[in-house]
Amino acid sequence: MAAEMYSIKDLENLSGIKAHTIRIWEKRYGIVQPGRTDTNIRFYTNEDLRRLLNISMLTQYGYKISVISQMQDDEIAEKIAGLSIGTSINIYEERLLLSLINLDEELFNKTFMDIMMAEGFEQTIIRHIFPFFHRIGIMWQIGTINPAQEHFISHLIRNKIIVATERISRQADPSLGTALLFLPENELHEIGLLFYNYVLRARGFKTIYLGQSVPYDSLDRIISACDFAFVVTNLTNPLPAEDFVHFSRLLCHAVPGVNVYFTGPIPENIDEKLPGNALFKKDLLLLLGLKEG
């Protein structure tokens, strides 16, 4: 992977260590060694970031920075491998972040399994993976990670949810009805929708999952041909209020009397403009007996 160049503010955002602390550690202990651009601007590399993330883990487990600074990288890695991770959310987040930065599938799989063994699959996604995605979304927007890294981690998580869904042995309960799940046209981020599909099937609902970027014309034909108990969709790209109201009315009027759950960002002050069968994420979580992380 090509070397990335980070500012000290980037390191602060990614590692959670204050820039002031990084500077002290740099001067006093030589923890990181910044380079200089042709215009004499300081920058840090992937190696610097990885080292800071590892050091942050050890400090959370009581290791003193003066002791860590004397360790070689392989000794630091050995100490981390031997940690009893327990249930520290910060430790989990840093391991997930390290797997993202290093494109380390093995570390991701081990971290995911550690969380799942401690908290179960659903809470792993709700309390750890969803907040992690929110964090890397912000980092992607400000340019501290690149799209390839985001795609890498998204692919791994997507596969985890699909495999978990395929392993559900519970048979669908006809009395619960059928749920339709889809992303509207030009919507491609389906991890949230895949998770709802998993949760619904785990609770005995039959689901029809259409996936990404479904043109409304083809959706209309499916709606007219099938009888659905409710519909779940997600708009990850925020829409102007007028466009959201138009889409919600179009969809809700196509399924009169059927609840439609919109699980993405919702514009403010539009409740009075929406159809009565338009519901939101909190309503779906209530239906499924879930709590937000």
Automatic annotation (TrEMBL):
Entry-linked CDD domains: HTH_MlrA-CarA
Full protein name: MerR family transcriptional regulator
SMART domains hit by this protein: HTH_MERR
UniProt xrefs under InterPro entries: Cbl-bd_cap (IPR003759), Cobalamin-bd_sf (IPR036724), DNA-bd_dom_put_sf (IPR009061), MerR-type_HTH_dom (IPR000551), MerR_fam (IPR047057), Meth_synthase_dom (IPR036594)
Coiled coil feature spans: none
Record-linked PROSITE patterns: HTH_MERR_2 (PS50937)
Residues in HTH merR-type domain copies: 5-74
Pfam families listed in its UniProt record: B12-binding_2, MerR_1
Keyword Transit peptide included in the entry's annotation: no
